[in-house]
Amino acid sequence: MKAIKDSVHGHVRLGDLATELVDTPAFQRLRHIKQLSTVRLVYPSANHTRFEHSLGVYHLARGAIDGLGLDDDTAAHVRAAALLHDVGHGPYGHQTEGIIRRATGRDHDDIAWLLTDADREVCQVLERNGLDPERVASLIAGEGGLGALVSGELDVDRMDYLVRDAHHTGVPYGTVDTGRLVNELRLAGDGESGGVGSSDPGDAELVLAEGNVPTAESLLVARSLMNAVVYRHHVSRVAGAMLERASERYLDETDTDAADFRRMADHDLLVALRNEVPALGKRIERRDLYKRAVWVGLEDVPAGTVDAGHAEERAAEREIAEAVGLDREEVVVDVPSRPGLKESGSTVVVDGVPQRLEDASELVAGLRSAERRRWTLGVYCPAEHVDAVGEAARDVLGLRGIGARA
Fold first, then answer.
1. Contact, 212 vs 91, CB < 8 A?
2. Phi-psi domain of 130 (left: phi exceeds 0; alpha: psi -120 through 50; beta: other)
3. How many angstroms separate the CA atoms of 111 and 115, rounded?
4. Is 401 helix (H, G, I), strand (E, B) or coil?
5. CB-based burial label for 292 (10 Å; 0-12, 13-18, 19+)
6. Is 40 helix (H, G, I), strand (E, B) or coil?
7. pLDDT recorded at residue 121
8. Rounded to an integer, what distance in angstroms lies between the CA atom of residue 148 and that of residue 153?
9. CA gap 188, 201 in Å, rounded
């Protein structure tokens, strides 16, 4: 057993398999992928990595497993999945996930390509220790009752990143009682697999035990507040949108393919963008970011614009740039997905019956309303063109209101 000192959980104890997996190149690469991507341009101390986050997820998963009564083989697969859940991330994490998805058809948690390749060291370590790489990959993808522990509404991934991100940014909003959360998790089966507390993961659903509606609400509140203050801060959104556009141009204009791109680390990509797409890359490196020409809420945006896809966003950028006489990379349209709180679908036992949190809690409706109010569409450009781009963007996007400008 090997102990690693963690800034959030104290000592994280690794078993022999976990120690071997941590030493693989795929896992060591996570030292060079920052957890909060462009958020660190807002919060200077937010330099923690997906390496330490993955150790934290493993630690919380071990605590949850201890209370679920799993057999040794199942427990070993879940622990491996928790540790490896982020090895599929590309540079800058979620910031480049859309690019990779469009090029490869895979999200970061779809890592069968990595775990089931016999030439990969991760696969060799798993098989040498009697684990099935495909089973580990399915757990990482959130499949089955126990997959929800790694990727679901009550997953240990979410529990760790909320407290870790709050710790490293210095904000007081992501605090959740991870100890109670992992200790109160149960497997609720159906049919012959048993009721609440069943240890058979086959048809089971991961739930919080009786009396834990407030526990589930705390996770929801923490996520909502972190969304508002950290994850969707407007500076991070501007930088992230610029990074995405620069990365797309880099892939379009160089010989780098998507397979190589998704194995880059953050510093690899930043250097590549600075050299190959300097108009945007140098700005990102120096934090010389575009300003907001348009910043409008959900009520001022036509439904068709709210649901615009990637192609529609890029077409709007070109049309706005042409209208103002700018180069295409000088206008960025940023349309977030519709607001929602995935955690509201978590399951809590109430009066002996598993219920969705959204049905058991009056707080959910208020938090959903808050998420809707915070939703904003942005259009960004160099500071000297803010007025002209703002006017053109309102025409092109059919906006009914006039947004605030930075």
1. no
2. left
3. 6
4. coil
5. buried
6. helix
7. 92
8. 7
9. 9
Q: How many CB atoms lie within 10 A of CB 270?
A: 18
Amino acid at 58: Y
Q: What percent of the chain has pLDDT over 70?
A: 94
Report residue 356 as tokens.
């969705």
91-104 burial code (b ≥16 CB/10 A, e <16): bbbebbbebbbeeb
Q: How far is CA 320 from the centre of its chain?
A: 30
Backbone angles phi, psi at 221, to 5 degrees: -65, -45
CA–CA separation, 298 vs 291, rounded Å?
A: 20
Distance CA 18, CA 299 (A): 49
Contact of 245 with 332, CB cutoff 8 Å: yes
Contact predicate 171/158, CB 8 Å: no
By CB atoms closer than 10 A (0-12, 13-18, 19+), residue 28 is exposed
| 160 confidence band (pLDDT: 50, 70, 90) | very high
CB 49, CB 168: distance < 8 Å: no
Cα torsion 155, 160, 166, 172 to 10°: value is 70
Q: Which tokens belong to 173?
A: 């909003």
Give the Cα separation of 66 and 382 in Å (integer).
54
Q: Is residue 404's pLDDT more than 50?
A: no
Cα dihedral: 368, 38, 270, 248 (round 10): 20
For residue 204, what pLDDT is reported? Answer: 83
Residues 133 and 140: beta-carbon distance below 8 Å: no
- Residue whose tokens read 């994280």: 12
